[in-house]
User: Fold this.
Amino acid sequence: MDLAPYIEHTRLRADTTPADVDALCREAVQHRFGGVCVNPLFVPHAKRAVSGSAVRVVTVAGFPLGASHTSIRVAEARRAVEEGADDVDLVLPVGPALASDWTYVEDDVRAVREAIPRATLKVILETGHFDEAGITRATEICVLAGADFVKTSTGFGPRGASVRDVELMIVAAGGRARVKASGGIKTAREAIELISAGATRLGTSSGVSILLGAAISGR
Assistant:
């Protein structure tokens, strides 16, 4: 299996420098990854660095807590797209979701969707905060609000992606949205298991080592 197209090569750490973004983008272009995922500050930098390649520029909004006002999230997403982002990964409003205020959640996600109609919108559920019923309901709401993808985790939450998360999200999405697995994906075996469960994108900072592991194992 060619894992490279699935991988969104990611660096969202607070200590990221422009030189780190350059290195991330060089690796993404070299290995033909599906995308690079950077914080909003670095979107223009990444766009220049991957120019002429098929690598997508991915960024985040409301990251990592999902606790900013809708108007701020809308402005952040809109500016990111104006500066060259192809995809925006928006953190679900976790607190309202845990309180079952699904009207708030749906309105929030829809507002961002409407602000960036031509970009790909992925909504990060932060699945470690939810039980299975919560993951299912959150997925359904994000799909209703127009998300193109639902995504498992930020990588900064209680836990990362699991095969079970992906399975639940695939069923709840019902073919109306795709699933991105992210958080703690470090090996080729983990990547293949998540893809086999239905994920079509993988967010990871271990993309190069995952490809190396796949080459060594012959998978």
Notes: Strands lie at 7-11, 35-38, 56-61, 87-91, 120-124, 149-151, 178-182, 201-204. The mean pLDDT is 96. The first strand starts at residue 7 and ends at 11.
